[in-house]
């Protein structure tokens, strides 16, 4: 019995020593960055952020002790708690990856003005105007437009082969929520496709979830069943590509290359690469210039924030890569605009004015149409998309 | 021939189990301590096999995750308060053997009611009054949510396990519906309500924003303890739970007790929903309860419906959960590793009951024992 | 002479110190129906369970077709073509008849509904069953369920059929149909054993009767040579003197008058059929009957736990002299009327007490409502628990030990002690000495006598006729939910009661029981 007690005591002592050691040891390094992720690397959405964070840390020579990652943080007070704990652990910069984290990050940002808080996909930094809270996004609509070109070329090839008639060039799109980010996404994809295949039309299905393999798969199957000959998506699982591979329908995915999942049908994916942004915020904060981080940062093709994954040569139509390259150059030069109002109509009319809800109060207040285009993610506005118009040629579910 | 046959059949098994008679407190504590120690060693073994990381580092990380800083201790207490509160809420129903698997949904509709108050009348009332209105709205919503399956059980003897479980999904969809209604942009994220005015937020006590939550749950613990152990209604719950026939025999109106108890259970869930909104999230998502409604069932049973024991069970489970998160963060291990260890510890603790109640014998060597 | 189907020689089975069967011999030929007759607890079911492989005999041998058989499991019994139809059906409610019939059968190939249905139809036609193989069990009447059980056994090729009280749950019409079927099976060469205690059925159906009493083998008679009186005497045996002191009732007055009450169970079968009787103060009224004849329902009806269709239960309050009708009142309403009714139910731990609670909490069951406080008052119940421990010599570590841990006798003392403590004017006790040793039993008798002397009207449901005859003043005999007779316990004989117990009275309107 005495032996047992002594064994237990020794164990407790050892454990508590170690606890102390691990807690103290981090203190010597100067700079620390903390990350808050909604899920862990099992989610493709979070994996994209985790990979970027690791790459940025490696590139900037941060060691393991300087990077703290908290995974599986829900969109509630847990996010605020996690941010505070990261501050306690000495973080100078804290990044959160989910839309629902935003208000909790702001809460923490107000409490700790000396720490920089950066948040992806959020919409409030430009209205909150806190010096230490920043939003970021990317002009992913440009990437989708380019992926749309690959899809349009594929449709042209199918028409040329006599597989479908010009009128049957219907694209199916599996979207998450009827929300500006998604609407902006599928509209840009559609405009890209129609820039090469003028007869293309689009049907949209919403899953009302960011990640649901079964729902996404069945939505894709429904779209295919209703005559769609090409599928794209804005949801985070591989449900839709799998359904397409089974039905032998070409498809375009998001954030990850799906060639390994659908080798016979995956065309290309657009993705946001967060590494440039992560590098930027870490560098600025390390240099003590955290306030210089833009309150609303929108990365594009030029910065390498928007990328396309490898084109699947087996599936793509001839000349696709060249067409994409040409459009990319035009984007970089500023000569091509995704939401060029001369290229689409709304209820038969060309848009000349549109009050978008930029400040997030659910009422449109800012005219974002000028110089013949809808200015998505404008520099002095906000980075998160606000294009929420259903244009002609796109059919969305009636009640939603 | 025949004798041989029967002899063979009646051979003693290699291992057999007998029920122990009453153990002294010291004995039972010793058994529990041994079992927990064995659990720690098993966890260490599993850690080495799965990850190759020094298990002492893992344990250090776990302790660090809950007790590393004062804030971590506060956060541990806050999580404990929430889990304990929901466990207390399900306990009257479970003590009555009403399988309330719907605490998740009951807390959620309570939260929804509170958020709705903040959303619709958040600016019209002073904060203290709003908080009180929120409390009553939450209690009402949750009691209704629990009461529906309760009434069906009492009147038509429907299966409450399935019914309450299904009500969870209805609650989640209801929350989605209201968020869709409140957030026209379609992003499905409500975010913090009243971030500027802080109307409908609990005040910080002594600079600690979770202190009030913890105090309310502490009071709730005492009240539930007294209600279950000392009140006539608590006694009726025990009788109905143990034997419905006995309850009828002594003239307890079983239907009435079922409905009353389920309403109380639901109302307590409502209080917890209110605390979650006013004292922590100030918002709602369809996943705001985060599985606590189910973990609470385990806590309640593990503690044999004793509110005082529940305090310790809740701390333990929250400690393990926080520890699992810290392991994932410190050692860059997949968070599943932490969850595996948590699972092993909980399993071990539950199984310690077995060793407290039963004795395991190995077969003795000498033969002919069956004649005795 | 036809061949022996099954023979038992010197079968003995003990459960601990209780001898359930002692040296039982029995022989059934092919093409013969044998009745196994005996009172409750005489060991009939235990004996049959040994044939069907559920128990294994401690001593003795079983021969099947003249050869020594080793039956260690129901599976072995099945291989010896023995099929048992239990009193409680073992069917899956959501499955159809055909599915239940083949359930657990290790047949090769796929389950073919049509094939099964054909064979079921074949068996039905042969023996005259009337069954739809595709009907689900939950849609069936009790008699149909029984039919499925019988076909299940025949489907498996059983040649020896054992039926445990098959008519207990049937209406007279259904019973007649069953008997026709059984006769046809007999003519087909099957050996049939039916367990029963209904004499007229024994005489009507069987070829031979084996009588058991208290686990002992009493004898075998050919039905042709038997009559009800011979069988009753074999069943109940000679009177044994017990030396229970019995005083004459002092000034008996009507305390409870039950008139024409009727009650149906969940299956819609009449369990109380036009029951009328009077219980008087200062008197012990015994109720005798085969188990399950309606005793439980009768007491529960008086205690407010059974819904009645007709009749009245009048209680004369000795204090106020008022008359109250207790029919369809809840137990709480009955108490609120000031009726001092105490009830010791048959199921002590399942109804009278809460097994997981200690004595103090169990004392509170009756008294916890007292007072306006919302909190429990524990000092009175504690006192009462201590008092009962002392006066009735309850063996328990302390008053907080869960009562399920106590021995059967002590549990009964706790229950009876509590019920007597509320100074009742009417005390009902169902099988209060069941499972108790001799000393505890006498203590219970003394307690009941004490109550009687205090002027309490005592109703005592018993199974041991010797006890009934020595303890009670009058004995009410109940059979099949009907009162078959009321006798004076001082003059009646065991045979007389045994005969009344097994007598079944059919009324013209008996067919409304379907």
Structural overview:
The complex is a heterotrimer of chains A (400), B (372) and C (514). Chain A has helices spanning 2-25, 44-59, 77-88, 102-111, 125-128, 140-160, 180-196, 213-225, 239-247, 275-286, 320-333, and strands spanning 33-36, 67-70, 93-96, 116-120, 133-138, 170-175, 201-206, 230-234, 251-254, 266-272, 296-299, 306-308, 355-356, 366-367, 369-370, 373-374, 394-395. By secondary structure, chain A is of the alpha/beta class. Chain A folds into two domains: 29-139 and 274-299, Response regulator (Rossmann fold, 3-Layer(aba) Sandwich); 140-273 and 302-395, Rossmann fold (3-Layer(aba) Sandwich), CATH 3.40.50.2300. In chain A, α8 (213-225) packs parallel to α9 (239-247). Residues 16-28 of chain A have low confidence and may be disordered. Chain B has 372 residues and is mainly α. Chain B has a domain at 77-319: ABC transporter involved in vitamin B12 uptake, BtuC, CATH 1.10.3470. Helix content of chain B is 72%, strand content 3%. Chain B has helices at 2-9, 25-51, 55-67, 70-95, 103-121, 127-156, 160-182, 211-230, 232-242, 244-249, 254-281, 292-302, 307-330, 335-357; strands spanning 15-19, 358-362. Chain B has a two-stranded antiparallel ribbon with strand order 1-2. By secondary structure, chain C is α/β, with parallel strands linked by helices. Chain C folds into three domains: 4-236, P-loop containing nucleotide triphosphate hydrolases (Rossmann fold, 3-Layer(aba) Sandwich), CATH 3.40.50; 254-340 and 423-509, Rossmann fold (3-Layer(aba) Sandwich), CATH 3.40.50; 353-422, no CATH class. Chain C is built from 17 helices and 20 strands. Chain C has helices at 44-51, 74-79, 97-102, 113-127, 142-155, 172-187, 199-205, 228-236, 295-303, 331-336, 348-352, 359-367, 379-391, 408-421, 438-453, 465-471, 494-502; strands at 4-15, 18-29, 32-37, 59-64, 67-69, 82-85, 160-164, 191-196, 208-213, 216-222, 254-264, 270-280, 283-288, 310-316, 323-325, 341-344, 426-430, 457-461, 474-479, 482-488. In chain C, the strands form four sheets. A six-stranded mixed sheet of chain C has the order 6-7-8-3-9-10, with helices on both faces. In chain C, α14 (408-421) packs parallel to α15. Residues 507-514 of chain C have low confidence and may be disordered. The chains are: A alpha/beta (400), B mainly alpha (372), C alpha/beta (514). Chains A and B meet through α1, β2, α3, α4 and α7 of A and α2, α3, α4 and α13 of B.
